[in-house]
Write a structure and sequence with these properties.
Order of helices and strands: HHHHHHHHHHH
Helix content: over 70%
Mean pLDDT: 80
Number of domains: 1
Number of strands: 0
CATH superfamily: MetI-like
Strand content: under 5%
CATH class: Mainly Alpha
Low-confidence stretches: 260-271
Largest sheet: none
CATH topology: MetI-like fold
Number of helices: 11
Radius of gyration: 23 Å
Distance between the termini: 28 Å
């Protein structure tokens, strides 16, 4: 049985960790509403002026559109290739299957600077100009890993007896996928897509190696961070990046929790 002091210590430690993670974000958010160009503390006057200034900035708007387009394209390609790879690894036994699984998840473990350098070398050697296409390819590399991990984890938790029962009842492969397999992995696909979108949207390290003259929102922040007169706009853009990254992650978490509750409910009813 835990002592009262132990519970207080755990609670205090948890809040300290949360504060360590989120207080810097809160400070950036407050500076986005600061009435002065410089970052003075305490903030003397609050205003929403910089949000209008940021929105009227054509570079910021173009960077937002570019970031969304790349994230959507990378997520779409990752859904296709990541799902197919997960089905192949899960359903078929072949020589080197474990090696294939390792190779598929390795990009997410590699430092972004290594991935960026490697892809940059490939494109430069192949004389492919750095553009939106190269950013899209670079983001797809790690987005595929997210989809693959989500889908294969769900497939491993799905009882094979359901598929076997469907086939025994006369359903063909397409019907079994539509009525059994797809409903089982649907939330994993959506959650994986949301996470992949969030990762792509706020990616900066790989993007710096592959962007050329293109600008995404994170790259806009990086390029203008050291320019004092641009700091208010940078703070606003940072808040947008944070929100558009947190919301998909939150939705993915809720989807995963909902799936876990749905999976657990039949057993609970049986008891």
């Amino acid at each position: 049985m835990e002592s009262r002091g132990g519970r207080v210590a755990i609670r205090t430690y948890s809040w300290l960790v949360i504060a360590f993670i989120y207080v810097p974000l809160l400070i950036v958010a407050l500076y986005a509403f600061s009435g002065s160009i410089g970052q003075k503390w305490p903030i003397e006057r609050y205003t929403t002026r910089w949000f209008g200034v940021a929105w009227r900035n054509g570079i910021v708007r173009d960077a937002l559109i570019t970031s969304v387009e790349i994230a959507l394209l990378a997520t779409a390609l990752a859904l296709l290739l990541g799902s197919l790879a997960a089905f192949a690894v899960h359903r078929f036994s072949f020589f080197g299957r474990n090696v294939v699984s390792l190779v598929l998840v390795l990009p997410i473990a590699l430092p972004g600077i290594v991935t960026g350098m490697a892809l940059n070398s490939v494109f430069v050697t192949a004389k492919i100009p750095l553009s939106l296409i190269t950013i899209f390819v670079g983001h797809s590399v790690f987005c595929i890993v997210v989809i693959f991990n989500n889908v294969i984890a769900r497939l491993r938790r799905t009882p094979t007896s359901l598929v076997e029962a469907s086939m025994d009842l006369g359903a063909d492969g397409l019907q079994t996928f539509r009525l059994v397999t797809f409903p089982a992995i649907r939330t994993a696909l959506v959650a994986g897509a949301l996470l992949a979108f969030a990762l792509s949207f706020d990616e900066i390290v790989v993007t710096n190696f592959l962007a050329g003259s293109e600008i995404t929102l994170p790259k806009f922040i990086y390029d203008n961070l050291r320019q004092p007169r641009s700091r208010p706009i940078v703070n606003v853009v940072a808040i947008v990046v944070v929100l558009l990254s947190i919301i998909p992650v939150y939705l993915a978490q809720r989807l995963s929790e909902g799936r876990a509750l749905t999976t657990a409910r039949p057993g609970a009813q049986a008891r």
